[in-house]
Amino acid sequence: MRPATADDIPAVENVIRARSGWLEERGLPSWRKNAADLARQAENPDGDVWVLADDDGRIIGCTTIQERTPPWGWTEEELNEPAHYLYSTVTDPAYRDMKPGTVMALWAVDQAAQQGCTWVRRGCHFPGLVRYYETQEFKLVHEVQRTHTKVYLMGRRAERVTDMGERFGTLSGPRTSA
Asked: Are strands 2-3 and 59-66 parallel, antiparallel or unpaired?
């Protein structure tokens, strides 16, 4: 994991387009129309966009980490707890077997703990993503109606994750199934 830069924009856009194709094949809404705009966030001078690269340097995922939880949907007490907030997490589906989404989530959990945060939080719009994030030990905390969509707000306690290499080994190219 490393901070994204303007040089990463084309690769991030490719990841978003690859994920969009995967979503569209399953009849789910995609980010295709906004892929270029989303990718341009990689040059954010605040440095809150991070990329995950394989051992050859190819970007296989990205996420945004903010040091503030969005104010809507959370209690005042929750908003006063030190937390990082993940959003816009996208991975290249060709690397699915290597669990890049889980790698990024655990990295964020570890980073938050190192920086003295109590929580890592995130939100999503689909029950399928809730189930997926639950496999990463995030818990559903709130369901919030936002205009025309329901948002599922989730959280996981920040903690040191010292066995990333043992869990995931190296990330080197998509695996093909025989």
From this structure: unpaired
pLDDT tens digits for range 117-144: 999 999 998 898 999 999 999 999 999 9
**What residues form DSSP beta bridges with 130?**
none
User: How far apart, in whole angstroms, are the C-alpha atoms of residue 5 and residue 77?
Assistant: 35
* DSSP letter assigned to residue 44: -
End-to-end CA separation in angstroms for the chain = 30
Could you tell me where the DSSP H helices lie in the chain? 9-25, 35-40, 76-79, 100-114, 127-134, 164-168
Neighbours of 14 (CB within 10 A): 15
Sheet holding 49-53, edge to edge: 2-3, 49-53, 59-66, 83-91, 119-124, 149-157, 139-146
pLDDT at 106: 95
3-state secondary structure (DSSP) of residue 116 = coil
Query: Distance (Å, rounded) from C-alpha 96 to C-alpha 103?
Result: 11
DSSP class of 64: E
Q: Cα–Cα distances in Å, from 82 out to 26, 40, 123, 157?
A: 37, 28, 17, 11
SS3 57: coil
